[in-house]
Amino acid sequence: MVSLRRLYLDGNSLTQLPPWGFKPLVKATHLSLRYNQISKIDTNAFVGLYNLELLWLSHNAVTQLTSVSVFRDLHNCTRLDLSHNQISNINEHAFVGLKSLQWLYLSDTHLSFLATGIFFPLTQLKELDLQQNQISKLQKNAFLGLDNLEKLNLNNNSLTFIPGGIFALLTQCTKLILENNFIKDIENGAFSGLFKLQDLGIGGNVLKTLNFSAFKDLPRPLNLYLYLSPTDKKLMGESMCWLKKEVTDKTIKFSVSLAYISGNWKAVTCLKQGKNRSWNCFRHTMRKVLILI
Q1: pLDDT in tens, 50-97
Q2: What are the structural domains, with CATH classification, of the chain?
Q3: Cα dist from 138 to 29, 90, 105, whole Å
Q4: pTM of structure
């Protein structure tokens, strides 16, 4: 057991992890506990796993991570998958010790709240997946410590408002996904600090307008992804003027998907990267679509 490097315990109906249970596995680099029924993780469950690189805990029944520093010995862990659980509460010190973590998956975990500084120990994190949760509000400094984050996925949550400066600390982020929420307003300066952003997804929301002042701090060129539904006629008519110039000048590459029109799912993508399509093409396409509504 001492020389074991990879241990897979998927689908074994495990309900708990005993304290110090994996301590003999001093050389283990991979530990998979997916598709079990684990509901609670003991504070000392992963003690001694100093060489562990990948830990999979997805598809279990974990309800909370309230044990302080439960991952404290996982100094070399680069990938942690906690997706598809029932985590409603994460202790602000839960991720202490994960100083090498680069990928953290928390999708579909019933999260509704992100405590301030919860990700502070994760200074090497590159990708944070928070999609398919119930997060309705982003607290100030929610992303404190994520100095090297490159991708943030908040798709399919319950966000209604994006406050100014909320992403200001994510200076290395290149991809931000805010699609399929309930966002009505994006405050001026909401995207300040995102100096390296290349892709921004804001489709599938209920935006009232697309004010230039909310997007002016973003770098160019920028790939902007937006879905339009039958309720977006006003958005199209009043909020696209500044986009017209940017698309024409090729500082923004604008991709549009049109959802559920006249009882059918249709998709139209215009002005794709690498294709020289004019604003007139986009406008003509949209005119035909709006007639169908």
Answers
A1: 999 999 999 999 999 987 789 999 999 999 999 999 998 898 899 999
A2: 1-110 (3.80.10.10)
A3: 34, 15, 18
A4: 0.87
